[in-house]
Amino acid sequence: MLSLRLSSALCCLTALLSTAQAQASGLSTNASTSITPPLKPANSSRSFGPQYAIGVNSAWNAFNNEVNFQPACVVFAAKAEHVQVAMKAIFDNDVDYAVQAGGHSAMKGWNNVEEGKDTITLLPGIHWGNAVADLAPLGVAPVGGRINDVGTGLLLGGGLSYLSASFGYAADTFVSLDVVLVNGTLVTATVDNEYADLFRALKGGANRFGIVTKYEVAGCAYWDSGPRKTSIVSQLVIRSCYSKQWHTMLKKSMIQMQLLHRSTKLSQKCFPYPSQQRRLDLSHTRRFPNEILDSVTIVGQTFGAGVLAGMSGSFTSSNPYIETLRLFNNFTTTYASSGQISDVTLAFTPILDAQIRIGLARGGNAISPLLGDGGFNAIQFAVSYSEGVIDIPTDIEQGREYFLENIPNTPGLPLYINECDSKQLVFETYGGFEFLKTVYAKYDPTRFNVRHTQGPLGL
Prior knowledge:
Layout: E1 13-17, H1 27-39, E2 45-46, H2 50-57, E3 73-77, H3 80-93, E4 98-100, E5 114-116, E6 119-122, H4 128-135, E7 140-141, H5 164-167, E8 174-180, E9 186-190, H6 196-201, E10 211-218, E11 220-221, E12 233-243, H7 244-250, E13 254-261, E14 280-284, E15 301-302, E16 305-309, H8 320-335, E17 341-351, H9 353-361, E18 376-385, H10 394-406, H11 433-443, H12 448-452
Parallel strand pairs: 13-14
Antiparallel strand pairs: 1-3, 1-4, 2-3, 5-6, 6-10, 7-11, 8-9, 8-10, 12-13, 12-17, 15-18, 16-18, 17-18
Pfam families: FAD_binding_4 (PF01565)
Protein name: FAD-binding domain-containing protein
GO molecular function: flavin adenine dinucleotide binding; oxidoreductase activity
């Protein structure tokens, strides 16, 4: 049996205790005091100094690096027991908190690998680029992030991977999860033990059900040579992109297609998009997982999610894809000249019917439609702001909200929570929404999580 263990450069898990609402009562001091002694020997708790500054100011999204607010304490948790101590102190003192794993989140305020047997064990804090690189020599790939500095928190939002068409959402590969509940209790959830309901809820439940301190997931083998008999698409991503740099050079935006698949034969029926606008970047999963993408410079980021049913037919003005592209072009045309935006992306990621059925076969998740028939497309609307912009300009925010309010989402299909706006009611679009509400009430009867840490709305 071969064992491989990774740890992140800073810590396995970073917990930030936010105490803005508790300052007047002195609870923040109590919480920090009760956390510090048990963790002191492990050097896991910091309220000042260089390590504290790194923990507070190193998020991928510059808007999550709090400029006018500093947490009372940062816990650098190296193991589940550290999370238990921290979470119990937070719960007992009734203070706000947030959790930072890889730090790759566009939602303001939301924020190693051990391989053996037939599974991979992931400890929070490591980035997918590290996991992919260190597992590659073993011929094993995790169903995980598509960008190198995305963290393991991607799994709790479902997780779209280059391998999702063949293996489902990344969360569909869960085998077991170690979870610290809001009262500090550590439990292990699997598909068929007493915490099976929690196990399923964590497949899309984001940060609302506890802090996961260990993920055991199914790995998948990949190949580096040899012909394949099939040409099953593993992932197709289409992006309509505005970049200040590209626009200066080319005087126009770009539409880019990225297809990873199992052979060099490409089907002509890839995606309902005007063919004359395509630029095709073709890769092969035989080289996977080395196709993971580099991240962008750390600047302010905002996301927004949409969802459209797959369709065929003419591209008339009433076509929802054309309407979505029109809204995108309207946004970039209106705000690109402001000098406060560096990049805008409209990305379409197909969620194939096969992916949905894989999730159902593995015990179900909280995301997929109750009566899914055919695939759909998850839409990401991402805006990157120019360096030095520390908050979203009011007029640009109004334009973003207009886009999100008017995108012609298909009713009955789920938004993708990892790429949503913080105000979008994503849980309400899930096929398992009623199930999530029931499970949340069971594991957090006082609604401590929704009262004290930011995250998705609706529970």
